[in-house]
């Protein structure tokens, strides 16, 4: 299917390239004042037509930046050549103005700026040559109104720049959207697969763990072996934890009740829970809640979201450092901030947040943030992460306030 499509695309390309190539050949032989003299100029013109046509036809085989740049340079040389060879054909000047449009077709920003710069330098040399070397008699239309021509040239480059800027931005956005769509689709399929596998693994795990727990309590078993059992049970617990997280991502529970969640209560109970699990080491959580905030969501899920984010903040902080949490109303939104002064993240790391299994921790699952993003999305909330490597991280969670839903 894909091959057929590529084949068709190539055919369309070759077919449309016949038009410029035919026009270049016509330019050589139809009413060409240099045709009869077979001078250096004409041979140079013929060579350029051959080289440029070759480049255009070879392009689908070498779709890369170097080849595009070569194509741009050859095209520029070609258009400047016909400008100098046929001074009587004043309209060739228009081609000079529009050389950078070729690079717009490639949607390559660097190449576009390169061709714009190359064209500006070339036109400066061209004008200087015409003025300083007394060529005005050949290019009288340029000499007669030099300033006007310069302004026109600058104007044309500005127009081309705007066309590029607008189309490039639009295409980039579309590309991003397409990428996101592909990523979501991929995640959906991976999720379904993961859920099926996780479910199948969980049952045997539970059975094995049950027996191990039974043997671990057996007085006949020696203490040495019991130690091994305990280790096995702890490893199985880790595996169970990963699987249950995976299941909650892959099979989000849509039947949970939506209720009015008191954010302050949930924050308080999430911190209490972290305390009771002994996860806080020596870290303190500074809770700062200005007013009562309510959102429409499921309490358990909001708690899970907050625990995941606060846990990350504590894990990123040095022992003893505190984590600040604030909750307040901001323009119809409930805004919760979790601020830590820990290791922070680079831009790339922040972008990778939420990718399944992305974790920099030796015992991390890399599913925590993904679960958070899923829960936030479910209740029309957002999670925004600002981070500086070595300085800390601020995670801002926003939900529509209950009164404004
Ligand atoms: P896990 O905690 O299991 O590794 P998460 O999805 O919760 O998975 O987080 C993914 C990764 O993002 C973490 O391994 C960590 O490197 C990074 N991260 C998340 N929150 C913070 C934070 N507050 N400060 C620094 N790094 C963080
Ligand atoms: Mg985590």
From TrEMBL:
Alphabetical list of InterPro entries matching this protein: HATPase_C_sf, HATPase_dom, His_kinase_dom, HisK_dim/P_dom, HisK_dim/P_sf, Sig_transdc_His_kin-like_C
The protein's name: histidine kinase
Molecular functions (GO terms): protein histidine kinase activity
Species assigned in the record: Lederbergia wuyishanensis
Transmembrane segments: 12-30, 42-59, 66-86, 92-109, 116-140, 146-168
Pfam entry (one): HATPase_c
EC number: 2.7.13.3
Enzyme class of the recorded protein, top EC level: transferase
Residue stretches making up the Histidine kinase domain: 196-403
Entry superkingdom: Bacteria
